[in-house]
């Protein structure tokens, strides 16, 4: 379906076709890791040292937990590239399993935040950091065999 918005341009009435948005990646993998995964997981990790003081701060923790769960969608949407220009391996079974780990960890932290107890959140932080490192161990930190490191 195509929608039209009416704009007044210099007194004239103009009909402009408004294309509907199609999901597509806009940033590279490193950018969404730094921009979304890192700050939101830090909000959750910080609960132990700086417990939320009021409802609003607890809501921030809840929202950060849901951002981690939703982040699974961002790492599995087709077409995104890594910082080095290589495609994100969204077709790989283990990649999708690691993404599912974000959903489980994010939802567990969300439930923990709803209790409003820092001790409950402390129990979800290990699974949360595991959900990051499980994937990093395989896809980020393992040195890729580069042509110039081959033994001659
Ligand atoms: C499904 C796999 C996967 C999961 C899950 C994942 N990451 Fe990543 N992460 C990567 C990869 C791959 C890179 C390297 C980025 C690139 O190549 O563009 C990366 C890079 C990063 C970076 C950038 C490091 C730098 O160079 O500055 C940060 C920060 C990061 N991840 C944080 C997180 C956090 C926090 C979590 C958990 C909440 C997480 N990631 C979960 C795969 C993952």
What does this entry look like structurally?
By secondary structure, the protein is mainly α. It has one domain: Four Helix Bundle (Hemerythrin (Met), subunit A). It contains four helices and two strands, in the order ββαααα. It has helices spanning 29-45, 55-76, 93-114, 118-140, and strands spanning 3-9, 12-18. Strand 1 and strand 2 form a beta hairpin. Helix 1 packs antiparallel against helix 2, helix 2 packs antiparallel against helix 3 (93-114) and helix 3 (93-114) packs antiparallel against helix 4 (118-140). The relative contact order is 0.13. Mean pLDDT is 90; it is low at 147-152.
Largest sheet: 2 strands, antiparallel
State the domain count: 1
| Count of extended strands | 2
Q: Give helix and strand order, one letter per element, not per position.
A: EEHHHH
**Rg, Cα atoms, Å:** 21 Å
Distance between the termini: 60 Å
């Amino acid at each position: 379906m195509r929608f039209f918005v009416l704009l007044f341009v210099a007194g004239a009435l103009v009909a402009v076709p408004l294309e509907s948005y199609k999901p597509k990646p806009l940033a590279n993998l490193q950018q969404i890791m730094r921009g979304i995964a890192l700050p939101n997981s830090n909000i959750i990790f910080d609960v132990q040292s700086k417990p939320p003081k009021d409802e609003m701060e607890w809501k921030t923790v809840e929202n950060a937990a849901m951002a981690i769960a939703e982040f699974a969608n961002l790492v599995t949407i087709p077409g995104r590239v890594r910082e080095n220009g290589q495609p994100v391996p969204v077709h790989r079974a283990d990649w999708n399993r690691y993404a599912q780990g974000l959903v489980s960890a994010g939802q567990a932290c969300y439930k923990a935040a709803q209790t409003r107890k820092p001790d409950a959140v402390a129990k979800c932080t290990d699974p949360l950091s595991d959900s990051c490192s499980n994937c990093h161990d395989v896809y980020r930190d393992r040195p890729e065999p580069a042509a110039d490191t081959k033994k001659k």
